Amino acid sequence: MTILTTSLLTAFVVAFFASTAYLVLRDDLIGAAADRQDQMRHTYESRIAALRAEIDHAKSQQLLERQRMQRKMAELIERQERLTQRHSRLRPVLERAGELHADGTSIPVPTPRPDIRADLEPGNRTPNLPQLASALMPPADAIPWPLRASHQGADAARTNDLLLALDRSLEDLETDQVARVSSLSEAAYRSSEAISDALIAAGLAVSNEGYGGQDSGGPLLAAGYLPFDEKVRELAEGLDRLEQLKQTARRVPIANPVPGASVTSGFGVRRDPILGRRAHHSGIDFRAKSGTSVSAAGGGVVVYAGWNGGYGRMVEIDHGNNFTTRYAHLSKILVKKGDAVENGAVIGRVGSSGRSTGPHLHYEVRRNGKAVNPLPFISAGTQIAEYL
């Protein structure tokens, strides 16, 4: 009994101490596990906080970048609109330049925004800026994942390159417009000068009304010193001057009445083909076959159309500014008195009517009723034919 009691007591004591040790050790294990969990939770919370800070920073940067791009795109759109408005102001002037044949090269213009594609393909110099802006600027909450500075930097660099390409495209377009306006203006003034010099050399008065006197004007400033509107105004003035001179040149008798025909007898003293003695020849004679078309040497009004003694069948045209022309020895008259004719209009046919020895055209230019040599006028017309 004693042994059994001792054994039971020993077993109880061992079990008690084992249970106590187990409970103590379990609390330590639970505490350690809890500590590890707390540490992991703090670690994750720190990482989440860092990621949130990084996301907030990325959103701030993206917002700033979006605002910067919006400002840049607004500037580009404004430039595009300005270029389009420029071309609207230029259109009437360009139409006049085309009518006057000042220059045949067109001036570049941006395509209206609704019809433009949002790309930068070769030849597409005016992309759709609003559509491109929306494509380049993602929503504010669109944050790429994973967050990598290199990825964001690459996107920003691509966007900046595209914006720079757009800016260069519009800048080139603007430069082209200014260059073309300057070129047209110079061409108009060169043409005006050539016409004016030829008319003056032929003894014709050229009006400078509305263009200042000898002391007015001044040197033409370089392209970069004149605003666009001033350039357009200068071009319009040059076209006005060119149009005035062309109208003057088309009215004065400077065209050849029988193009391609040779001159057989000049102006001045010559041997009369019928009497054989020296006599004054008041015009020049063109050799041509009977029936060849005779054209008006300038625009004007027919003041005589009929038989006129030794002139035979004759047409006389009043060109204004005290200038008249006579076309004699015609075989047929195709106009009547009072008709308004333009430069180059056919007024009759070559013949040998009146005091004539064979088919030819006797052509006279008269100033204030006095015959003058027609050759300087025809020479002036030949020099400026390309400008008319």
Give a quick precis of the structure.
By secondary structure, the protein is of the alpha+beta class.
What is the percent of helical residues? 40-55%
Helix run count: 5
Count of DSSP strands: 12
Order of helices and strands: HHHHEEEEEEEEEEEEH
SS content category: alpha+beta
What does this structure look like?
With 388 residues, the chain is an alpha+beta fold. Among the domains are: 34-140 and 148-174, no CATH class; 262-387, Glucose Permease (Domain IIA), CATH 2.70.70. The protein has 5 helices and 12 strands. The longest helix is centred in the N-terminal third of the chain and has 98 residues, at 2-99. The chain is rod-shaped and about 190 Å long. It starts with a helix and ends with a helix. Mean pLDDT is 77; it is low at 104-127, 131-138 and 210-225.
Key descriptive features of the protein:
Glucose Permease (Domain IIA); 388 residues; 5 helices; single chain; two-stranded antiparallel sheet; alpha+beta
List strands and helices in order, with pairings.
Elements (H helix, E strand, L loop, with lengths): L1 H98 L29 H8 L12 H53 L26 H24 L10 E4 L2 E4 L6 E4 L2 E4 L5 E3 L4 E8 L5 E8 L2 E11 L6 E2 L4 E5 L9 E8 L2 E3 L2 H10 L4
Antiparallel strand pairs: 1-4, 2-3, 4-11, 5-10, 6-7, 6-9, 7-8, 8-10, 8-11, 11-12
Helix pairs in contact: 1-2, 1-3, 1-4, 3-4, 3-5
